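Fold this complex.
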Amino acid sequence: MADGSIGLWTVPLAVLGGAIRVSTPFLFVSLGECITERSGRINLGLEGTLVMGAMSAYGISYLSGSPWLGVLAAGITGALLGALHAGICSLPRVNDVAVGIALMLFGTGLAFYLGKPLIEPTAPRLPAIDFGWWSDIPQVRAALRVNVLFLIGVALAPVLYWAFRTTRWGLLIRTAGESSDAARAMGHSVLLIRLRATMVGGFLAGIGGSFLSLFYPGSWNEGLSSGQGITAVALVIFARWDPLLCLWASLAFGGAAALGPALQSVGVTSGYHLFNAAPYILTLAIMIITCSPKRTLTGAPAELSITR
Amino acid sequence: MIIGETPPPSGAFGVDAIAMTMRFGDFLALDNVELKVRPGSFHALLGENGAGKSTLVKCIMGYYHATEGDILVGGREQAISNPKDAHALGLGMVYQHFTLVPAMTVAENLVLARDDVPAVVNWPKEMKELEVFLARMPFKVPLGARVSDISAGERQKCEILKQLYLKRRFLILDEPTSVLTPAEADEVLGMLRDMVVKGELTILMITHKFREVMAFADDVTILRRGKLAGAGKVSELTPDAMARTMIGAEELTVQPPRTGEAGKARLELAKIRALDDAGAIAVHDVSLTVRAGEIVGIAGVSGNGQRQLVEVLAGQREAESGEIRVAGDPYHASREEMRRHRMSLLPEEPLKNACVGGMSVADNIAFREFDRQPFASAGWWLNRSAFRDDAKKKIGQYKIKTRTPEMPISALSGGNVQRAVLARELAGDVEVLIAANPCFGLDFAAVAQIHAEIMAARNRGAAVLLVSEDLDELLELSDRLVVMFHGEFVYEARTSEADLTVVGRHMAGH
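Structure:
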C-alpha cells in the first residue's frame, strides 16, 4: 500500500491519534480536579495551573536538559498553586469559584510574564513509545506514537477509582466532600483534607501542562492551552465525578479536538474553524443534555458550592 | 493532654459536671449548672430551646471549653480539650442531625468512624468483622446499603451502632427520636435501656418528650435559661411537674376550643405527582380534599414526600401531573390566585422558605401586600411609613421580640421568625392555610401561640392542611388524619377515632 492511498481512513486514524495525544492534558487536569471536587471544593484555577505547568516544565527542561525534571517541576508548581487556592479558601467567607477565577487569570498572566524568554529556545522533549512499529503506513505509525504520560494517566484513572473506595485517604476525601459535618464530628480537619486534595489536584494539572509544552504541541507559546484546563473542569461534571468516566470523557474530547485538523488533511477545508470548535460545542451540548433545572446532579459531592 | 487514668476498660461509668459556667461574650449560656449522671443509669436532660442543654453536653464532649467548672469522668477530674479526648475516655455523642455520610454505605461509614482506619482497607475482612459485631448487637442494619437509601429509623440505629462499634460506654443522645415513629422510638430506646440495665452503658439523653422520659429514664435534670431548674428521680416526678419546672412562670397562650362544623370543599388535590431533586417520584398521585372549617393533618416520617407536596402547593416546585383546585378554580400557585383565594402558607424552615433573611422584619411582614395600597401608590411608589406602622402593629399583636421593625429578620430567634411569618400570613381573613412543621424547634410559648392561631383560623372557617412530623401536634389539632408513606396516602381516619398504634404502623410502612 502506497503512501496516502488510505484515503478517507485518514480521518478516523487522525481522530484516534488525536484522542491519544490531545486527551492527555484533559485526562490529567480532570483527574486532578476530580480529586479536588470529591473533597468538596472546586478549583477553577486549573487553567492557570496548566499554563504555569507548561511554562515551568519547558523552562526546567531547557535549563537542566532533562524533560522528566521538567515534568516534576510542573507538578510541584501545580501543587504550590493548589496550596495557594486552598489556603485562600480556608479563610472564612471566601468563595472557591471566585478564588479559582482569580487564580486562573493570575496563573496564565504569571506564566506569560515569566515565559517570555522561553519562546525562542528549544527544550528537550519527552520521548514517545512507538506502538505502530508493525505497520508501514506512516499515518498509523504517527497515530500510535504514544507518550508515557498518557499511559500513566490511563493507569491512574482505575487506581483513583480503587483508591476512592478502599483507602483511608479516599474515604476521608469523600467524607469531606459529602458531609463536612460528619468529617468534623469524627475529629478530622476538613480544611486540611481539602488542602491536600487541592494540592494533589494541582500537581496532576501541572503535569498535564508539561505534556503541552514538552510533547504535543511541544513548544512554549502563549496560545498553548486555549482553555483546555477550564474544559477539563467541565468534563469532571460531565463524568459525574468518576475517575473512570473522566478517562473516557477525556478521550472523547481529545478526539473531537483532532477532528478539525484531520478533516483539513484530507482536503475538507470549508468550516475548518467550525470543526476546530468541536470540543467547545461538545462541552455545551453535554452540559445542556446532562443538566436539568428540576433535579440536582447525581453523584455530585454534596458539599460542592455549585450543588449546595 | 495527659489522661491520668482512664475509666475501667469495660462496663458503664458515670459523668459529673460541676459548677459549669459558660459565657459567650455578654451572654451567659450556662450559669453554675450541675449535672450528675450515675454509672449505669439512663439520665434525661430536659429544657426548652435555648435553655443550655446543647451547650452543656458540648462542654462535656470538648467542643466548647467551659468558662468555669469541672468534668468528672468515672469520678476522676478530666481536662477534655477536644472531642478526641472525650472519645479516648469512652464518651460518645449521637447528634440531632445525622453525621453519617449519605452517599456512602453503612459499612463504609462504620469503618471510617474508627480512629485507626487502615491505609488500605481490606473490605472482605472488615465485612466479616462487622457481621460478627452486628450479631452481638440488639438491632440490625443493612451493611451494604447506601445511607441515603435507608429509612430515618435505620439511620438513627446506625448512628447508635457506630458509637457502640467504637466501644463508647457513655452515650449522649441529642433528641434521638425526633425523626422516628413512636414504635421505632420505643424499639431503639428499649434496646438501649436493656444495655443500661445490664451495666454495659450509661446514657444521657436530651429530649423534650415527657412520654419517653417517663418510660425509659431513671433520673432527670431540668435546665431553664442556663440555670439548673430541677433534678431528681423520674419515679418521684409527674410530667406536669417537669413541664412547670421547664417553663417557669411564663404564661402560655390558651388555645380556643374547637367550634363549628366542616363546610364546602376548599382545597382539592387530584392525582398530584411530583419529583424530588434527584428526579425520583416523591409524591405519587395523591388526592385529598380539605373542607372549610376543617384541619386535615398529614402525618409521616420526614422524607416521605411531604416536603415536595408542600413545595408544589407553595409554588416552589412544579407538579409533573395532577390538578389542584381551590374553591373550585384551577390553582397554579400564582400570586394572584393566592391573593384571590386568601391562601396562607407556613412552610417549614420559615427563614429559608418564607423570608428574605437580609431584609427587615417590616419588609418581610409586608411581602404579600407590598405593592398595593396602603403600602404602595400606583403599584410602584412604596410608602415606607406604612410598612413601619403595619409592622409595629403586628409586632405588638403577635408578640414578636425584635428591637426595631428595621432589624434584619435573620437576626431574630426561630420562634420570632415564625411569629413574623404568622403575622404576615394570618393577619387578614384566611380561607386556605397550608402549614408544614410550623412548630419545629420552637419553645413552649411559641408552640402554644401557633397552635392557638391555627385553631382560631379553623374556627373562622379556613380550610387547614397541616403537615407535621410531630404526631402529638397532629392528634391535638387535626379533625382528620392522613398518613403519608413513600409518596402515597396510606391511611386516613377521623382523629377522634384514630388508633395511635395503627397510625404508627402505617407511618413505618406496614
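Residues 182-197 of chain B form the longest helix (16 residues).
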